[in-house]
């Protein structure tokens, strides 16, 4: 990937609502050059999706997010890929990562409530033959995601004291 495409990606990552005209102006190039670069990256699946980052704590809809550490036995010939694919095909699963360290996969799931998330682990994930163990962590509060801080910070109202 060339530097130009990397710059376009950086701008889109920061704010995917930016138009090709805005990006062209920011980079000092013709808009057509940006249009071509974006189209190529979409065709090559470098750009997979444009999405909003939502602060769900500000929305009335209840959601539970869990991170599950999963230890598995790799499948002969396909390693971790076959088990990871079986897991990521469940609609509750938002992300699956192959990890180094004490466990093999990190699975992020979303449920309507604690019971639904627990049910996924006990009825869908744990019964998979290759799964040796799971450890579930429920997210209680998000402070920062994808570089965006969710906390409403208060201004410091203390008086300045100078010597």
UniProtKB/TrEMBL annotation:
<dbReference type="InterPro" id="IPR019887">
    <property type="entry name" value="Tscrpt_reg_AsnC/Lrp_C"/>
</dbReference>
<dbReference type="InterPro" id="IPR050684">
    <property type="entry name" value="HTH-Siroheme_Decarb"/>
</dbReference>
<feature type="domain" description="Transcription regulator AsnC/Lrp ligand binding">
    <location>
        <begin position="70"/>
        <end position="141"/>
    </location>
</feature>
<protein>
    <submittedName>
        <fullName>Lrp/AsnC family transcriptional regulator</fullName>
    </submittedName>
</protein>
<dbReference type="InterPro" id="IPR019888">
    <property type="entry name" value="Tscrpt_reg_AsnC-like"/>
</dbReference>
<dbReference type="InterPro" id="IPR011008">
    <property type="entry name" value="Dimeric_a/b-barrel"/>
</dbReference>
<dbReference type="InterPro" id="IPR036388">
    <property type="entry name" value="WH-like_DNA-bd_sf"/>
</dbReference>
<dbReference type="Pfam" id="PF01037">
    <property type="entry name" value="AsnC_trans_reg"/>
</dbReference>
<dbReference type="Pfam" id="PF13412">
    <property type="entry name" value="HTH_24"/>
</dbReference>
<dbReference type="InterPro" id="IPR036390">
    <property type="entry name" value="WH_DNA-bd_sf"/>
</dbReference>
